[in-house]
Known about the structure:
75 residues, single chain, 47% helix, two-stranded parallel sheet, mainly alpha, elongated, binds zinc ion
Amino acid sequence: xxxxxxxxxxxxxxxxxxxxxxxxxxxxxxxxxxxxxxxxxxxxxxxxxxxxxxxxxxxxxxxxxxxxxxxxxxx
Length: 75
Ligand SMILES: [Zn+2]
């Protein structure tokens, strides 16, 4: 059994882990790199983390846009 890195909670709707491995029966996931045993995940850690960082950046950007939009509405 391998533990893949997956920080987004339930993975029932996901077909593969962030490392690209298909979730089979017996796959485990963890948001804690200490618990991750999948070599693919470990090798792609920086890339996976980069993806997550980008997603978080997008969310922050969207919130910034919204704040700008709201500020303009007040004028
Ligand atoms: Zn993996």
